[in-house]
Amino acid sequence: MSQNSLLNVNNNELEIIEFIIDEKQPDGSSYSGHYGINVAKVLEIIRLPNITSVPSKCDPSVLGTFNLRGKVLPILNLATWLGKTMAEESNAKVIVTEFSGVQAAFLVSSVTSIHRMTWDRIEPPNQYVQNYSRDSITGVLRIQDRVLFILDMEKILASLDSTLDMSQIKVDTSPVEGAAQFHLLVADDSNSLRHIIKSSLQKSGFQVTAVASGRQAWEFLQKTRDEAQAQGKELTDIVHLVISDIEMPEMDGHMLTAKIRDTPGMNTLPIILFSSLITEALYAKGVKVGADKQVSKPDLPGLSKIIRELIAEKLNK
């Protein structure tokens, strides 16, 4: 599978690694739960290493640490974190990940395959699924006779390390002179982070519309453009800047940016992409699709300053 094609500016594709957690049932039987993680977050998949227990660990899902080529990484039992008991596995696997600048590893029963698809095949989870999963599922993927749950790995790690908890992030909310004249569109599939960004920007004085996916953002922009044209106005007279996550069900932030840049009447709209996944390759893709700024989620405290600078630069306001 070519990573180059995944980085194509007109590509709304991703690759998902499917893995299984075999859950031990009360009657002694086993149930196989199917899950997924974006390939872009995975460094490698290894056998279960020798684990060193962590003194005074407070969460039972933290198994300890292990040495991976001279680097000490934490390892987490995903089944335990999800409130399940993993069946004994002689061939268990460990998924080593990196996102938000942090490397960590997750114990699973097995890793089965890689699936390549477009983002529109990833469905947003319903409320029942969210409640059942401790609000840790960002998407649902149907493959043949089974359903894969795409886990929110950032949320799982943040529950164990408060420094990674985006819900606790302190975004600059100081009042911005003239902010009330600017309408910002925010797209993020995380309920908590979407609320934090919207609330903080509103406190700074901006008008904010927040949606849960790139597709919802695109539909909002199309509708607003049509309404503006009916009034003899331009879209950019009504919406002044887009702030979009990259990983989202239905349509990711890269495709949203590309569609905006390819559409007359929208193509001058300032766009900020933010994600836990701004690798060197994905940053290059962000540049290609036309993002004005790219911000990693740990850098969100300075978002208000970036918005002010970008509005001044792009809109001369």
TrEMBL record:
TM stretches of this protein: none
Highest taxon of source: Bacteria
Keywords per UniProt: Phosphoprotein
BP terms from Gene Ontology: chemotaxis; phosphorelay signal transduction system
Residue ranges occupied by any CheW-like domain in the UniProt entry: 13-162
Modified residues (4-aspartylphosphate): D245
Occurrences of domain Response regulatory (ranges): 183-312
SMART domains: CheW, REC
Record InterPro entries: Chemotax_regulator_CheV, CheW-like_dom_sf, CheW-lke_dom, CheY-like_superfamily, Sig_transdc_resp-reg_receiver
Protein name, as recorded: Response regulator receiver modulated CheW protein
Organism this protein belongs to: uncultured Desulfovibrio sp
